């Protein structure tokens, strides 16, 4: 009953806090989460195939991509398609060690690139005037965990956050929807700045922003300093928090990110750009 209560309220409070209050261990909760639940015959076949693919990838030191692993599966007698293998590998976060690093893909000619309207003007007088956003990836036992955040440049508060196994435009949209519901800004007064990643130049993301009359700004190609505040946030997250955790599961890492962004960073960590105040304390002075 206690584990079920934690699972039903983890969106409102960190798992760490819930476990302490209910006097149960986090390890016990995660064992309960991953307990077997009678998968269907189809899902069992998918799981068997996925286990085989990951074992083959491990034996080959993470070198083969999904096409070569598909050939291995065919040779082993699995009846599967190339797209199915790609989907199963993507679902568990597997990437070939020789694959192009996420975030450094060749831009698609059909996606628009907008000018750098922010122009490194990082000092903003009022909330909900400038939001900046970026995406990073964190290594976990099952593969990568991708994190998208949106910061308010005035208060440095994290107004939107989304986590997932796949680095796509859906990650950005979930972060935007959370930020909009939380802050309810006036679209015409808001500038949204990001890099030129394909996730931000996606038609769905740009349409979402245009529908709300938000002005869109993008960094110049290969210039991380144009989005320095978002880049700095992720550097702090990794240096202060995730580095000491080691290689943990995705669910545990997600809980740690939630705790850092919702509690430690806005309520505890002092920000010298804000005169030594925490983001929440600074916001209270406005």
Brief overview, please?
With 286 residues, this protein is of the alpha/beta class. It has helices at residues 2-9, 15-22, 26-33, 41-59, 66-75, 82-91, 169-183, 203-211, 228-242, 250-268, 279-285; strands at residues 130-140, 143-152, 158-164, 191-194, 215-218.
Properties at a glance:
single chain, 286 residues, alpha/beta, Nucleotidyltransferase, domain 5, five-stranded mixed β-sheet, 11 helices, 5 strands, 13% strand, globular
Number of helices: 11
Main beta-sheet annotation: 5 strands, mixed
Report the CATH architecture of the largest domain: 2-Layer Sandwich
CATH superfamily of the largest domain: Ribonuclease H-like superfamily/Ribonuclease H
Q: What do the pLDDT scores average to?
A: 87
Q: Please name the CATH topology of the largest domain.
A: Nucleotidyltransferase, domain 5
Strand content: 5-15%
CATH C-level name of the largest domain:
Alpha Beta
């Amino acid at each position: 009953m206690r584990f079920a209560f934690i699972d039903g309220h983890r969106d409102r409070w960190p798992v760490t806090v819930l476990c302490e209050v209910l006097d149960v261990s986090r390890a016990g909760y995660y064992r309960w989460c991953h307990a077997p639940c009678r998968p269907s015959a189809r899902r069992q076949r998918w799981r068997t195939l996925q286990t085989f693919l990951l074992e083959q990838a491990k034996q080959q030191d993470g070198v083969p991509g999904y096409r070569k692993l598909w050939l291995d599966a065919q040779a082993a007698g699995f009846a599967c398609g190339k797209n199915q293998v790609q989907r199963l590998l993507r679902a568990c976060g597997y990437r070939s060690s020789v694959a192009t690093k996420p975030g450094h893909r060749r831009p698609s000619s059909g996606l628009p690139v907008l000018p750098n309207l922010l122009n490194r003007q990082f000092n903003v007088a009022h909330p909900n005037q400038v939001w900046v956003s970026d995406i990073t990836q964190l290594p976990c036992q099952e593969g990568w965990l991708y994190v998208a955040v949106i910061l308010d440049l005035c208060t440095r508060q994290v107004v939107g956050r989304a986590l997932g196994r796949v680095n796509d435009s859906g990650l950005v949209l979930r972060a935007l929807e959370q930020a909009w519901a939380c802050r309810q800004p006036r679209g015409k007064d808001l500038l949204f700045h990001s890099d030129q990643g394909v996730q931000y130049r996606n038609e769905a993301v740009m349409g979402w922003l245009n529908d709300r009359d938000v002005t869109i700004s993008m960094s110049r190609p290969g210039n991380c300093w144009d989005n320095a505040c978002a880049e700095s946030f992720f550097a702090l997250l990794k240096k202060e928090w995730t580095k000491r955790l080691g290689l943990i599961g995705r669910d545990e890492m997600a809980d740690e990110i939630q705790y850092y962004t919702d509690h430690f960073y806005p309520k505890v960590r002092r920000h010298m750009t804000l005169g030594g105040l925490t983001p929440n304390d600074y916001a209270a002075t406005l």
